[in-house]
Write a structure and sequence with these properties.
The chain contains 16 helices and 16 strands. It is an alpha/beta fold and 575 residues long. The longest helix has 37 residues. The N and C termini lie far apart (95 Å).
Length: 575
Amino acid sequence: MASNKGYPRCDVKVSEEERDFYEMKNRACEFYTRNKVPQQIENVLNEMFFAKPDDIYGYLANFFMKLSAPPRISGLNGREVYDSQGQLAVQAEVMCTIRNEQKLTSCAGVPAGNDQWRMQGPDLGKGRAHHITTGLEWIKGPLSELLKGCDPCDQTGVDNILSDFFSARHQEDKETRRSQEEKNKEAEEEALPPPPPPPVSSKGKKAGETATKGASAEKLIPPWVPPEPEVPGSLAVGAVSLAVAKSGALIRDVPLYKHILALRSQSEFRVPVPLVTLLSCGKSSPGKLNLLEEVILIPRPGQRVAQVISMALQIHEELMRIMNSSTSKAGVRAGPMSEAGAPVLVCERPEQALDLVVEACGNLGLTPGEEIHLALNCAADRLMDYSKGKYEVIAGSLKSPDELVDMYQALLLKYPAVAALIQPLRKEDVDQWERLSSVIGASCSLLCDMSGLSASRALPPALPGVKGQVLQQLNGTKVSDLIRIMMENPDAVILSSSHSEPCGEDCLSDLAVGLGVAYVRLGGLQGGHRLAKYNRLIAIEEELAQQGTLVSRTTLPAPLCVGVNIEDAGISEEV
């Protein structure tokens, strides 16, 4: 290519056009030689001659694809989408430069945490709207610039950038809130009237002394400790982190669960045990019972996911048949489907819900405590009447924290198939958590529901007797945060879906397998977005089985206790 053949001799006058053409040929020669193009072309032609492939140009494409520059993130985009409850959510899109072309490689969204952003009265939805708008601004603006040029396969590096950005916004938000609180306090102090003069002491009484006869001797409950507010826009961080993980999997040409497993430097695949919601009660149900938000199926070990779903569907059909009949022993009726994808039970006592499940299992030939076990999502932190210092377990029926512990103890004695209690008390009732743990012994696991908190910050210390935590990926929770939590708590995490996930997201199943969690809670068997996750879990299990890399479980792992007799566990029958 560098030959001067055809170029006029020095004594021959050449035109400027010929000189420019010759110089361009020299520059091209230098460019191709510097990048070893002639050498690589020679190599591939020699290899292809001996290989004699049917698809010559496919062979050439594969050869040069290996020599191409690694993909790099070229930008981000954010879109408003709707979640499974019809609320606005954020979806992050990742664009990468791949072989000199900009391509959309993935999109992802995370739940916004509805409980915090849904405001009451005339301000309904305003907090959430600000959360969504700020998240979109972050994605399209600063986050897109910060991640431009990053390797989408370097999840740790990307998440570190996201973490630094979020930490700065978190600090700004704290300072803004502090400043606003000081202004509000000053305004309140100016509006307050002057304090009244102190009362005159009565004869024979010291000032401030009052009669104590008839005063309530009720034990005061610990005050509510509000969680740290989420930073508006924080869901952009979680959405971008998940979208980058999906891009990395696409570029590496592996499923997302294998990509996540590689990020953990692990090689053993275990499909988590699916926890299926059978019934919903709870405070939002039409019945008087507030306590049991969910009755959840814990299948016996050794079953494939498809077998668990088939059994859960049979139980679901039998439950519906009993509730719609007039001969039910439990004396209950069915309400509408809940947000968890399970039938709502209209009842007055927790025993009715458990009797219904026992009756349905008995009709199907299933023995509770052997073929199946149950977990009860109590959601008791939502039931406290702070004006009276008691839990409203049943509409009009209040129980103190100690009385609620006694109630759980009686339920577990009557229904030994119950193997786990999720959020049986407020986190502030530390003494009662410890007492409950001591009276139930090893017969039942206590689980703390941390699904309302973002895992981007350190989780609070475990409560007494708590054996596991239920987590969700929401708001600012990054993929690296989930990996870190799993490494710190390998046998104490249950990954849970949300009732408000962006439609079309089924990657929770991939996350659960890749993270190596022992259990995943996907809700009931109603609703396309939930069944998409179950179907994905079935597909992953079948794929691993075909590849011979599936590790089966012979026993149910921690944090759930299954198969421990009440007598052996040391639970007391004194209630």
